Structure formats: C-alpha cells, structure tokens
Amino acid sequence: MKRCAVITVSDRAAAGEREDLSGPVLVDALTAAGYEATLTVVPDGEVPVAAALRTALAGGARFVVTTGGTGVAPRDRTPDATREVIDRELPGVAELLRAEGRKHSSHAALSRGLAGVTAASDTGPSAFVVNLPGSPSAAREGIGVLLELLPHILDQLDGGDH
User: Fold this and answer.
1) What are phi and psi of 154, to 5 degrees?
2) Is residue 161 one of the residues assigned to a domain?
3) Cβ(89)–Cβ(43) under 8 Å?
4) Cα–Cα distance between 162 and 160 in angstroms, integer?
5) What is the maximum span of the chain, computed from C-alpha positions, in angstroms?
6) Which end of the chain has fewer CB within 10 Å, C or N?
7) What are the start-end ranges of the H helices in the chain?
8) Which domain, by its residues, includes 87?
9) pLDDT in tens, 15-63
C-alpha cells in the first residue's frame, strides 16, 4: 500500500481555534481509494510547511497533499515552501486543478498552488507533492482530479513505462 500524507495548513486549526474540515476530506478520499493516509496540521508560513513536507517525505510518503495557504493573504506561503522541497514542477497538474476549481468558484483562480515531484534520496523515495486550497469543497474537487493521475505518476516515479 502506498503511503500518503495530508498536511492541513491553517493558523486557526493548528491553534485549536477551529476544526480542520478539509484535511479529513482528503484522508477519507485517499483511504477509500486504497491508500494509507496520515494527517498533520501546521500553522501557515514557509518554515512550518517546509518542515512538515520534509517530515512526510522522510517518513516515506509517496504522495503529499497540502490543503490551505495557497491564496494571496500575507501568511499564505504553502506554494513557496513547496517550491523549496520539490525538484521539478508539474505545471499542467496545477493548471488542471485551477481549471476544475473554476467550474465551481471564480476564487479558484486565486490559488497559487503548485504540483511537483521530488527525487529519491537518502531520506526517502521519490514523491508527488501537490497544494490544494483550504476549503472542504476545493479539497474534495481537487482530490478527485488527483486520484485519476496518482497511479500513473507513482508508476512513472518508480521507473514505469509510458
């Protein structure tokens, strides 16, 4: 079973001031699709997000999906932290997620979310990393798109043929 990590990025959820609604949506979808998924909640900002990404990758996660921190607010730094961790961007995946989101809300165009892959290293295998917006509906819509791509991407990262 492939390991996945869900990281909710929210100052208020990390402080216990509000319930994390989007992270559990992602965990449930991944589990229903046959993946092993863990959930971590961290505050906004580049440092905590980059640390959570690195921890998930070092723990062997092959797919890491974040929810939250992708907008234009001053502390929305999830894509910036992600850029520090990935080796290669997959801009088509991020564009596809925004296009799907725009079918439901014009605010999807404001997401700065990234998608990319990491290289295998001493600290973990290669992995697919994606940022989703923080709303439960955007998480649900986004994971639907990603679950269609995930088996092929993981196969490619493992050296599979086209």
Assistant:
1) -65, -40
2) no
3) no
4) 7
5) 47
6) C
7) 11-14, 22-32, 46-58, 78-85, 91-102, 136-157
8) 3-156
9) 999 999 999 999 999 999 999 999 999 999 999 999 999 999 999 999 9
